[in-house]
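Design request, tokens follow.
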């Protein structure tokens, strides 16, 4: 979620924590997030290919809209008001996601990371401001950062989800919010003045009018800039007492502030609550919601605490450690594009978010760049990522939960969309249903609800068609491209070079330490026999696999010859 909201349009401490972090960094040497891969996983059923975040294939889903794994948790907190279309809870939950992991749905797509919408407890009431009655089904209207919303599941459900994902070599990215609480309703009182501001509304004309303000009306803005200690909101204390965990929560807070030396300001309370999830469940990364609406120094503080928590979890669970990557943070800085390099312009100042513990940025520019020919798109992205952005990354997408004008909203060219997304340098984000042509235009919806329909499982099962394309045909295309990407870090993290313009053939090369990876790709090819020069990448006698046709071929005299009915060739060692 960015500044478009549903239903409404340091202090660095020098103490034992720092010493612990230094010690753990020595014992678990981390690699550069954008350029290096991790060690081989200790799980016997996970690929030996090093995982590199810049090559990640991320599947982003709205938990409530994906799959209902437990119908008994569909109604909670008397959320019974009739809502506008697709603006209430629909039943999806963590159990449903776990079930699909167990079934191998994501494995077949070559997914290497899952980004789930927030699952903290949401406001109990609803809003009705412009787009109809709306509940917090999306997860961005937090009421309590210390408990799960039962509509999404329980602590046990998250434990199983993370453990199951990790056993499949899939990392978990948690969507986190520090910028705001949920809206004020008759069931959800406003937090105290020393915690939040309720005006002015952001005008986005400058840094101050983007950061020190509320995104929209009735979305209280956390005073993340405050250096003044505050007491906990009375409604939160009362809730904890009613839940029987007041003493536990207070003791944990006391220990946190004693360890860190932080002042009890609003942002540090929330940082504590967010990093608890890493320490307890072993999640692998954050997606930072509304990142440009918070002082960038806050992300440095969160990143420092998140890394400490991640190292603690790894130390305590050595048998569950997947690799030696650092904790990952990808930021939603609405309007950022790869051509901006490291800086984002607020109108009166530049900010380098990458300098604040952020490894990658969501690339809002990709949908425009995807209209360009393949070579211009690929070479431009490779130049940026191996130039000014070296060591950092971007997360590309074609559709999302709040981009009203995606690359292919009508699903007219799903094959091209998939090819450009999954073969572009940088990490890829598949939005749930991209692979199955889920409809993004739903009559009767208002605002971004049209982008958030139910996952179209029935259409997948029946092999329905969309605009002349069989859904299974499109899914097969996504699976082949995704499997190729997941097996070869060079696809997203390597250096791109065109081999021939016609036919269009290119290579990608990646190396880190003793590991190297090379691939050769051909697009828009004629059916039948195909021949490519590959002597710069593969020696004679090398056996290559075409991930698209499923055929093998041997390099002879510096060339590879392959016969297939396909117009795409995805060559690499297997």
């Amino acid at each position: 979620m960015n500044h478009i909201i549903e239903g409404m349009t340091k202090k660095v401490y020098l103490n034992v924590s720092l010493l612990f972090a230094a010690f753990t960094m020595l014992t678990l040497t981390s690699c550069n997030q954008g350029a290096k891969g991790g060690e081989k996983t200790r799980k016997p059923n996970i690929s030996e290919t090093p995982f590199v975040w810049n090559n990640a294939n991320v599947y982003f889903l709205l938990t409530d809209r994906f799959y209902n794994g437990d119908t008994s948790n569909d109604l909670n907190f008397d959320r019974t008001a009739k809502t506008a279309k697709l603006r209430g809870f629909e039943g999806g939950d963590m159990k449903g996601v776990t079930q699909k992991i167990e079934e191998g749905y994501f494995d077949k797509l070559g997914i290497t990371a899952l980004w789930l919408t927030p699952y903290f407890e949401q406001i109990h009431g609803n809003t009705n401001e412009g787009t109809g009655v709306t509940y917090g089904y999306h997860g961005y209207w937090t009421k309590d950062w210390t408990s799960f919303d039962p509509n999404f599941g329980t602590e046990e459900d998250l434990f199983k989800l993370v453990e199951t994902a990790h056993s499949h070599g899939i990392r978990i990215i948690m969507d986190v919010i520090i910028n705001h609480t949920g809206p004020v309703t008759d069931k959800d009182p406003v937090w105290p003045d020393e915690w939040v501001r309720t005006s002015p509304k952001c005008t986005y004309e400058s840094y101050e009018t983007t950061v020190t303000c509320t995104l929209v009306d009735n979305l209280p803005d956390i005073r993340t800039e405050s250096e003044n200690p505050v007491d906990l909101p009375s409604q939160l204390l009362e809730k904890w007492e009613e839940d029987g965990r007041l003493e536990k929560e207070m003791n944990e807070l006391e220990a946190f502030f004693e360890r860190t030396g932080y002042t009890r300001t609003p942002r540090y309370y929330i940082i504590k609550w967010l990093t608890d999830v890493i320490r307890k469940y072993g999640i692998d990364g954050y997606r930072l919601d509304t990142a440009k609406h918070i002082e960038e120094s806050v992300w440095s503080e969160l990143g420092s605490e998140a890394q400490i928590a991640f190292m603690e979890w790894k130390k305590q669970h050595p048998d569950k450690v997947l690799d030696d990557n650092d904790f990952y943070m990808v930021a939603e800085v609405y309007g950022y594009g790869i051509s901006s390099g490291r800086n984002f312009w607020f109108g009166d100042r530049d900010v380098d978010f990458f300098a604040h513990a952020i490894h990658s940025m969501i690339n809002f520019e990709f949908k425009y760049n995807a209209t360009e020919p393949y070579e211009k798109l690929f070479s431009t992205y490779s130049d940026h990522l191996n130039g000014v952005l070296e060591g950092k990354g971007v997360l590309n997408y074609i559709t999302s939960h709040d981009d009203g004008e995606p690359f292919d909203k009508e699903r007219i060219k799903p094959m091209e969309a998939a090819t450009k997304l999954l073969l572009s340098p940088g990490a890829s984000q598949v939005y749930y249903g991209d692979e199955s042509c889920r409809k993004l235009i739903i009559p009767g919806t208002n605002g971004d609800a049209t982008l958030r329909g139910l996952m179209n499982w029935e259409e997948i099962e029946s092999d329905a068609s969309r605009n002349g394309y069989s859904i299974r045909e499109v899914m097969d295309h996504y699976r082949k491209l995704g499997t190729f990407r997941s097996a070869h870090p060079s696809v997203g993290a390597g250096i791109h070079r065109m081999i021939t313009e016609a036919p269009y053939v290119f290579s990608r090369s990646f190396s880190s330490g003793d590991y190297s990876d090379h691939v050769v790709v051909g697009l828009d090819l004629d059916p039948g026999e195909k021949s490519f020069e590959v002597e710069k990448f593969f020696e004679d006698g090398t056996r290559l696999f075409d991930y698209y046709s499923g055929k093998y071929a041997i390099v002879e005299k510096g060339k590879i010859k392959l016969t297939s009915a396909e117009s795409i060739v995805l060559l690499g060692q297997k």
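Comment from the thread starter after seeing the answer: thanks! DSSP finds 16 helices and 24 strands in the chain.
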